[in-house]
Each structure stands twice: as structure tokens, then as C-alpha cells.
# Entry
Amino acid sequence: MKNSLLGVIDATSYYDSLEDLLLHRSLAALPIAGRYRLIDFVLSNMVNSDIGSVAIFPKFQYRSLMDHLGSGKNWDLNRKRDGLFFFPAPSLDASEEGVGSFNHFAHHIDYFNRSSQEYALISNCFTLCNINYLPVLERHIRIGCDITEIRHNGKSLDMYLVKTSTLIELINERRNTGYTCMKDVVEDIESEFKVCGYEHIGFVETIDCIEDYYEASMKLLNINYWKELFKKDTPIYTKVKDEPPTRYTSAASVKNSIIANGCYIKGKVQNSTMFRAVKVGVNTSISNSIIMQKSQIGDNCVLENVILDKDVRVEDGVKLIGDPTKPIVIRKGMIQGALMNS
# Structure
């Protein structure tokens, strides 16, 4: 069944509840787990399932996403035939909220018409999981399904497997049928298509609000959850950056945390995630927090239940203490000074 699957990733999703983290990036490009982006997971799943042609359909703030993915080299998708494709969305109606807008696909119908793969796997960009799509395809063929919806604990993961010819038919007939996306087809009890469910067992987190993002990040500090998501035989790939190892001073203390390369830590870090090139000052305590790339935290600070976006600067003596159910979020490039908190 190698090369029989076409990968389609819908990267148009946007949630108001994540606005503070999506001002300068799309949801697909949201950083997580120290060095990854959300899209890395579904894209790696596709590559690990022998999918050699992947189309990404972005809409909002996708410069950061394109910079991250580049030519697709880190996913072995920089090839002469097939490979990685970007199809930015035209202006879509606000009502088109389902994963995989048929109107969006219709603007790039030539891609589907020219594809040699018999089946297509359509997925959202914001689900953390490690799944092999080949068993889904095998079962889909074996029991004669028209559409297979991948689920977890009975809930749809907004991942659908369908014949490419059927997908083209749905796109072309969208105005006659009234279907705007795959979800419409699956939920139509009078649909002519045989819809099957495939239950995925394992770690799954869907990121559609700040609270879910924070909770998922905290879960990944648990080694058992980490091993469920990051498997040796099906690795998660990401953009490679050459940076020096993290430097720890003699006064530094780090417990149960994810620390990426290039950091410089002088203080205390516990139950937290540090992205690349983060600096933590002397006598500073950070716990239950997410600190994104190149952020700088000064001396004598206390940060608890906090999310700092990229390039944030926290000056000396600042205290930021949020609630585990409602973490404090500091937007990209902001400066948080002691006088602001007085």
C-alpha cells in the first residue's frame, strides 16, 4: 500500500481563545514541547505512514509556518516528484469552520486531479498524537468503507480517510449537495456514503484554547505521556537548528522540566518547558510555566503558571503568579517590568 495515500492538512483553523498566541503565527505553527510546532505531529505521522505527497492549506498568518517547514527537507519531502505543497486560502466565508473546506480545495482542484494516490487522508493541524495511518487504510479497504473517521474515545479527531476520486466528487458537487467539508458528510445520516469509525488508542490532546495548550504542555512533563507521543520507531520530526548545549551555573536547579538547546540558566526551574535560547537570571524561580524561544527573565523574579511567548523580556524583581486553570499569558516581544506590577 506504499504511495497509495495522499496527505491533506487543513491549517486554516483559528480560535479566539488562543488569540494571545496567534497574533504573529497560525495555529499550525504554535510552539510546543520545547522545540516542536503543532503541525510537526500530523506531518510526521503522515511521513511515517509512507505518505510522500502532502498538501498544506493555510489561511491566517502563515509566514511563520512556511519558514518552519521550508522545502520539507526535515520531513524528507523535498523531492522532484510529489513532496510538500502550500495552497493558501482565498477569502473564505466565516461560516466555513469545518476541517477541509471544499471551497478551499476547489480553488486547487488540479492538485487532486493530478495526484496518483488512490486515497486521501485529510487532517486538522492542532491534534497531538502519534498514529500510523496504514492500519486505518487497511481496515478502510477490508470492510469496504467510503469514508473512515478517526476517533479517540468515541470523539472525532477531525481526521478522515476517503478515496481521492470520492473527494474530488464531493468538491465538484458541493453546491448541489450542500456539503461544505468532510464533517458535513459524516454527520449526514441520510448520506449515500458508508461511514466507518476507527478508534485510535494512545495519547491524544486537541489544542483549541489556552487552557488545553497549557494542560497538554504540563502533561508532557510526565515521562509516561512523553513516551506515548514520542516513539522511537515513529519519531516526530521538526526543523533542525544548530545551537550550543544549555549552560547551567553552579547555582542553577532544574527539576522535571523540558529544556531545549542554547539556554542559560542561573536560577531555579521546576515543572516547566524552556524553548531554545531562553535566559534565566540569578535567584529567579520558575515553576509550572512555558517559556518560549529567546525570552529573557531577569534576576530575583518569580514566575508561576505563566506562558511567555517568544522574545519576551521580564525585568529584575518581577512576580507573575497565575492560576493553573487560567495561566498568565504574555504576548510575543512584550517587556514586563517591576514598575508595571506595582
